[in-house]
């Protein structure tokens, strides 16, 4: 694996490689890698000639300074994991490389996506996400961008930005990788103590409960029951929401529509998010 720190060096390298017809896959991350990230690397490896992973803890997407300061870092094991999984290039820029002094801040037109769910609870978060992804895509110049469904709303936001700005990249979204007990893998899980990790299983339990009952019970009741279950395990809840595939809240469930459940809740000082497709429109008879 080749490690690049300076954007210019990576740009030159890719430009030279592109003299022959190659496909480049890109997996942007904030490090503290786990099997969720590695599943994206593996997918990219299987579909491209070159796979690039970036590790950059993007300050502009953190609305909570404490969350930024406490974000887990494990560069050495990250490098080992990437090498084990055959990643070709690791890009690890500095904040100054991504946001140089003359950096032009765009305002990204994200519509309702910027003010619901994560947008509502983390002001400015998606502006920061778009800022960094746009910049990374300019540097990396990939054919396929690999994202995780774990960050469902983020996938929608990035898709919209790519479409609006005509960025020539295909986006592929991979399913959420979970621990055996159902807990969605997340870098932030490293900040949970044993008791909190145990309690956090309730998030997956609630998502499964919603999936089992979505056509059996009233959505309003299901939400109340979900909130109770999460609170009983000590969670502070930002939202338990049930939506269509575009994240519009729904109040009745129909088999012919895609239905998504999304949860954001905090235990200790750790905010966790997770989601599950409760019904897939394509499966409707
Ligand atoms: P992050 O390092 O948290 O910014 O995540 C980098 C990429 O990995 C994003 O596209 C995430 O959606 C994806 N990702 C994070 N956790 C998981 C997971 N458990 N399963 C699949 N993809 C994930």
Structure overview:
The protein is built from ten helices and nine strands. The strands form two sheets. A six-stranded parallel β-sheet has the order 1-4-3-2-5-6, with helices on both faces. It has two domains: 2-174, Rossmann fold; 187-274, Pantoate--beta-alanine Ligase, Chain: A,domain 2, CATH 3.30.1300. The protein is α/β, with parallel strands linked by helices. It starts with a strand and ends in a 6-residue tail after the last strand. It is 39% helix and 20% strand. The longest helix has 20 residues, at 194-213. α7 (125-140) packs across α8 (152-164) and α9 (194-213) packs antiparallel against α10. 33% of the residues are buried. The site of adenosine monophosphate (AMP) has 17 residues, from α2 and β5.
Poorly predicted residue ranges? none
CATH class of the largest domain: Alpha Beta
* SS summary, helix count: 10
The strand count comes to 9
Small molecules in complex? adenosine monophosphate
Q: How many domain units?
A: 2
Q: Helix-strand pattern, N to C?
A: EHEHEHHEHHHEHEHHEEE
